[in-house]
Amino acid sequence: MKISITCRHSDFPQSLQSHTAAHVQSLERFGEHFESGEIVFDTEHGETTCELILHRHSGKPFVAKDSCDDARAAIDHVVDKARVQIIKYKEKHSAKSRRHEETLYRASIDPNAPSDTNNDQA
Predict the structure, then answer these.
(1) SS3 letters for 1-44?
(2) How much is the pTM?
(3) I need a labelling partner for 111 at 20 to 30 A (CA). Which of 41, 64, 80, 121 fits?
(4) Options 3.40.50.300, 3.30.160.100, 3.40.50.1000, 3.20.20.70; which CATH number does 2-109 get?
């Protein structure tokens, strides 16, 4: 994944930039392949705002934003927010395919079997 780091209104040390890149790279272990990642740091009134945008090959990008007094804490919070978004996305989309596969499996075993819908007949 190609990562671009932008710092507005201040300069961040190289160690902080490498820390950021390592944290963002760790998000790829969730099985989602990203084309690129953008990290934007902005410092106003002593508070650092960090925004992370992860561009996927298809679909909407994952976007997370957080503000904190410490830049490292802001990075950690943003990466955690993105991680939660990715996990929710993966769970949502894998659950749909499982339900569909389960229905196909049941139909292939016994096409005359009743479905699992609860039809209350009195």
Answers:
(1) CEEEEEEECCCCCHHHHHHHHHHHHHHHHHCCCEEEEEEEEEEE
(2) 0.71
(3) 121
(4) 3.30.160.100
